[in-house]
Design brief:
It is a single chain. The chain is of the alpha+beta class. The chain has a single domain, classed as Glutaredoxin (3-Layer(aba) Sandwich), CATH 3.40.30. It is built from 5 helices and 4 strands, in the order βαβαααββα. β3 and β4 form a beta hairpin. α1 packs across α5.
Length: about 120
């Protein structure tokens, strides 16, 4: 299991605490320092069964600079979203847990973290 985190994020710290309390084995990816590539983002989005706009942090200043709120959300514009998120990893919602069984979840709640544990 891998968890993508920003250590400054309280939801990430809570997810790590819960994983530790449950004795889960995991690796941490500090995705702001080690940004995912376009291919990695595509793979995680497939595992999440979500589109990039579903996990985009549109409240970030860089999203406003790029005008992302007005971007179309279509198959034709999907690559634009993914490329922006790869270039500006702050745009990626967190934490994201990827499990050994191929599933993934945006683990912003204790319930989502527990669900990730149940599927591993």
């Amino acid at each position: 299991m891998e968890i993508w985190i920003n250590p400054a994020c309280s939801k990430c710290r809570s997810a790590l605490s819960l994983l530790d309390a449950e004795g889960a084995e995991y690796t941490v990816r500090y995705y702001l320092q080690d940004p995912p590539s376009v291919a990695e983002l595509e793979h995680v989005l497939d595992r999440l069964r979500l589109e990039p706009w579903d996990i985009a942090r549109l409240g970030e200043p860089v999203a406003a600079e790029l005008g992302m709120k007005s971007w179309a959300r279509t198959p034709e514009t999907r690559a634009r979203w993914v490329e922006a998120m790869a270039e500006h990893p702050k745009l990626i919602q967190r934490p994201i847990i990827t499990a050994e069984d191929g599933s993934a979840s945006v683990a912003r709640t204790p319930e989502a973290v527990r669900a990730a544990l149940d599927i591993t």
